[in-house]
Amino acid sequence: MRTFLFLLCTLSCAxxxxxxxxxxxxxxxxxxxAMEKVTSMASKGLMGVSARQMRNTVEFYAKAPNKRLSVxxxxxxxxxxxxxxxxVAWTQMPMEEAIEVxxxxxxxxxxEAVFNPALKWRELFPKAxxxxxxxxxxxxxxxxxxxxxxxxxxxxxxxxxxxLLVRQSGNFETPQGPMDVSVEFSDYRDIGGGVKxxxxxxxxxxxxxxxxxxxxxxxxxxxxxxxxxxxxxxxx
Length: 236
Fold this sequence. Notes:
CATH topology: outer membrane lipoprotein receptor (LolB), chain A
CATH architecture: Clam
CATH class: Mainly Beta
CATH superfamily: Lipoprotein localisation LolA/LolB/LppX
Helix content: 10-25%
Mean pLDDT: 89
Structural class: alpha+beta
C-alpha cells in the first residue's frame, strides 16, 4: 500500500512546477503579507553534537535587508562569532581577532544573509527545477534544485503534505574549504501573525552532525546595526 501511494503521489506531483511548490511553501509558513511584516529576528537556543547533549548556547540575530550575526558559546573554550553588516562578512574564533571573509565564501554569506530569503527566491535563484518526489522514511518530499546567479546549486526538499521546507543540501564554502552540507528543519512553530519557523535544526557534515534547538525567538526585535559590525582590533 505504501509503495502504491508513493507511486500515486509521484505521478500526481509531476504536474506541479518548482515555482508552484515554493509559493505553496511560502503560504504554508504564513504567506507573503504576514512574512513581510517581520523585519528582524532575535533568537536563543542550545547546540550540541547529539540531540541529547545540547549544552552549548547559541544566539542568532537577523535584520532586513541583509544583516545577520550568530554567536556560539563553547564551555571552557569561549565564543565563536560570525557576522555580516550588509557589506563586510567576518568570523571571530575564540580568543582571536576577527578576520574578514572574502572570495567564494563571501558570496555564500551574502546570499544566506538576505532576510526572509523565501520571499526573494527568484532574485537569489534565477533557475528553479523540479527534480521529483523522494522518500525519506515514511515522509515524501518534493525535491527542487535551485541555481544561483553565481555559485553552486542548492537542493531544497518540501513535505508533500504540509509544503514546509524540511531539508536543504549542497556544497558550500566554509572556513575549512568546500564541504557537502545538509540541513534538516523540523518543529515549526507560530512566532506571531501566523508566521511559522523551525525550532529544531540538524546540520549534517563530513565532520559530524550538529543539533540545534531554539528555546526563544522574538520577531521584530530592536537590534542596533552596530551589533553586526566587524569587531575592532583589540591591539591596533
